[in-house]
Amino acid sequence: MRHSLVALTAAMSLFGVPAWAAETTPANPAKDASQATAAANQTLLGKLPFADRADYEAARRGLVAAFEGQVLNAAGKLVWNSHAYDFLQQKDAPDTVNPSLWRMAQLNANAGLFQVTEGLYQVRGMDLANMTIIEGKDGVILIDPLYATETAKAALELYYQHRPRKPVVAVIYSHSHVDHFGGVRGVVDEADVKTGKVRIYAPDGFMEHAISENVLAGTAMFRRSMYQGASLVPRGERGQVDAGLGKAGPVGGTISLIAPTDLIVKPLETHEIAGVQVEFQLTPGTEAPAEMNLYLPQLRALCMAENAVMTMHNILTPRGAEVRDAKAWSRFLDDSLVRYGDKADVMFVSHNWPTWGSEGIRTLLADQRDMYAFINNRTLHLLNQGLTPLEIADTVKQLPGELDRKWYARGYYGSLSFNTRAVYQRYLGFYDGNPANLNPLPPVESGKHYVEALGGADKVLELMRTAMAKGEYRWAAQLGNHLVFAEPDNKAAREAQADTLEQLGYRSESAIWRNIYLTGTQELRNGAPQQGGKAIEDLVRAATPAMFMDVLAVRLDSDKAVGHDMTLNWNFDDLGQRFALTLRNGVLTYRENASHAKADATVTVSKATLDRISLGQLDFPTALQQGDIKVEGDGARFKALLGSLTRFQPIFNVVTP
Predict the structure, then answer these.
(1) Helices 2-12, 635-643: crossing angle, 10 deg rounding
(2) pTM for this one?
(3) Domain span at residue 450?
(4) Domain for residue 30, yes or no?
(5) For position 530, what pLDDT does the model report?
(6) Which of 47, 31, 21, 90 shows the shortest CA–CA distance to 517?
(7) Residues 320 and 356 in one domain
(8) 333-351 in b/e burial notation, b at 16+ Cβ within 10 A?
(9) In this structure, are 360 and 235 located in the same domain?
């Protein structure tokens, strides 16, 4: 019985977001770039306008004070270290980094307090995102208070060191991703929010999406985020250099959330905040399900949130999320262009650096509008001619016209390859239409057949090394993947596959592709890490009871649950909410605001108790003993439900079976 109760406690701890794990020094160090990789990177120098240094000037424009230091958490552990990227001061890209990515990494390394225009400042380079400060009559307004409370607090303090110490009177969450709200408790006190001293503005649907995105698929998303962010890969010219949108997420910081006091629900709304006119433009379904742009008419300043950053963005992020709508994204960019293109002298965003001058703003908005429209329309054009996702990705190798030479349309975060496949998935799903792919063999079984057909492990290794010598790393990686999954204990196979992925990482223009390749490389050489994430208190407390029921349904092991049919009434006595649960055919379903007339058992618990269990502050046996949870009726049925729940492990294998 103890095991069953612990399983439910583990199930409850899913309400969180991926935590950035501390980087480590791997036992097996990185290797040099091959001659083929060095040559490929060198070739790119002649294809792009590297002599154009305008972005270097823009990224440093308005610098008030550089940040050159560290941010520590309450335990004295390092959360942010600006010196981790000192290696980027070298002008020319080393052979181990794509020179276009090296350029972006240098630009994102500018850290400090910047004046955007009169009365408008940004702190950049102290977190993955930017924090923007608007100076009002009786206080300051903060847009996007970063990922962690520690970095947010340090960013605001840097501002106060150089500007009047006016109180924070409002916070604006531009959208529902954690790097834009997680640091809020570092800059405001919730007591001031509750009394109305501080207002918090957010787009409609913010709370639902801020929590739900990381709930049902949270364990897998956490693991994949470790790859996308290269959170365990050392910083350096053979390791992590950038994240496309910024340097990285804080390591071991505290993530928080305070619920908004004011939701923006109309397509366009204007509010006066601390004497500053703010026009909100809702853009649902673009970069986030709940997102909005802002226009400040008194400052002639336009905030495009994360809808128009200095890179191609993701239509589908490799960490995992719902596929975004490239068509809607393009249309909202055009709406912003029409509405604000002639009214803005500066455009600032939640990542990277601003754009000054109306003509430059209009051009950037139009170019990124065209970019997302092209990705959507060209993919549909080709899929309607019968091309499959991989064929489309290999066909659409660059943007049309002048777009391909525009730095802000390069794929440092998103990529054409991934984005075209995402559009295909949005319209047609993952199946490519070929009957041979209706029911393919899983990786281990497929790998064994391939290795046997190719003449055994030694022959596959020989083929891999031949491909690598020719610089054909994509083919070598496919061969290596089959071999590693067929023979996971084959050390030579893992080493060869690690070498292959490493060279692919060194060539990648996309920061997150590089991160993914190099994380795979490190895990093939050193094994998967043992550490995982933890539940985040504010998100647990903000999660709805219905979300908890959804988690139970996902955690249920149908094989164990078959034969234990039951009906349960679950009551949250502090909220007055009722749920009627039905376990039938190994499937758990529920009805909200309902009760079974004749339930096998009734469970009564407060949401506060459930939160404590989710956070590991209390377990079910103790809660039952103390009377915090009451079970009336057939308690054995409730125990059977608990015994059918699976505990998900936060770390699972990715590049090995």
Answers:
(1) 60
(2) 0.94
(3) 441-526
(4) no
(5) 82
(6) 31
(7) yes
(8) bbbbbebbbeebebbbbbb
(9) yes
